[in-house]
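The data are quoted verbatim for reference:
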Amino acid sequence: MNVLLVASECAPFVKTGGLADVVGALPKALEPHGIESRIILPLYPALKDLAGEARFELDLGVLHGSPARLVCVEAEGISLILLDAPDLFDRGAGIYLDERGADWSDNAQRFAALCEAAVHVVLNGIDGWRPDILHAHDWQAGLAPWYLRQQGSDIPCVLTIHNIAFQGLFPSALMNELDLDADGFSPDGYEYYGQISYLKAGVVASRRITTVSPTYARELMSPEFGMGFEGLLQARRADLAGILNGIDLEVWDPETDPTIAETYTARALKRKTVNRTALEKRFSLSSNPEAPLFCVISRLTEQKGLDLLLDALPTLVGRGGRLALLGSGDGQLEDAFRKAAVAHAGSVGAIIGYDEKLSHLMQAGADAILIPSRFEPCGLTQLYGLRYGTLPVVSRTGGLADTVIDANDAAIKTGCATGFQFAPVTASALSDAIDRACSLFADRKRWAAVMRNAMRHPVGWDSSAADYQALFQSLFDSRSEGAE
């Protein structure tokens, strides 16, 4: 089978979050299952050098006011189809946000162009290759399945919802400009409370819908988490599946990671302390071998529950714990953690921003990673934590609930605990979880046993890639039977 992935970002080339990691890892994971994948991606400034290594180019004429072409390249073991539309994508600041931190005013046109280019590849092929299935990721790719429906194509489409909070909402006045059929602007189509929703278009027009964990799939059908889509997803229950994300086990491997201070294994955990010392130095933290060093690597937003951590800091500091935080986002939260670092000098350190290399050192050097999200479709940082023996402290929601086994007495005694869960998602419950972590850390033998459990926990793509292969195969077979 040939599968075309449509996405707005892809690691290691361009990344704002976990979506990029998943899109970048999935083709390699699918390859052993007989699936050849290519990714169609905008050609942002960060990818310009890749375009110079093109093996094939195709002129698309003009897309939404920009000359456009498709450029096929191979990089990092991934086959990319880059949409070169300079008036839409060759700009500074972020890939979604302008210099002021606001959405680009033409995001509707930009990602409609990406979807139109994807449809061209599906219908006409490129460089001798043609996909059997289109796999769209999040709202930025949501119009691709809808455009294929408008064209009358029978190519099966799969839409993966990475985070339903982002729905791609735009004014209805753009219908004609976006080449959307007027009949589709209805509750049964892409209309969402009087606006165009790219995500809804993808949900409605795709044969199957996936999201990134089984628990999140169930949560999306409830008013608490569905964000207005719960009724639609309940109606599509038979077509909805939760498939856990995995991580790249070569990139995230404490035994070989070149970015950390000292490599280590589950059998040589003492070497992890070298990273702990390096992390303490980087964040200007005091050394306290008797209490855990917690870390946070996150966007600073309400979704991620970092406001709750501010309220729980007295418990963490009171138990002698330290906190190293790396992240950016909400200005008020950024300021609050800067102030916390001053107020608790030596116990709290904060670096506002993002640094991929530093994130590896934090996973290697911290004892525990805090993820108090109010909702979390899957999450990747807890998987990195498991891989590095940095025990996750997580809220019991979405993929966090599916991947971390709480270190209660029964789980510790049976040797299956891998971290700490808490519920409800409140500052009090988070404080209790931090307190439990500090108490377990005091028993270094039991803590080390849980670390080894965590490092043995499967976090790669093997199982999930097999689930995707089965899903794609069922769609491929049904199309073949229909053709007969």
Q: What stands out?
A: Residues 2-246+462-483 form a domain with the Rossmann fold fold (CATH 3.40.50.2000).
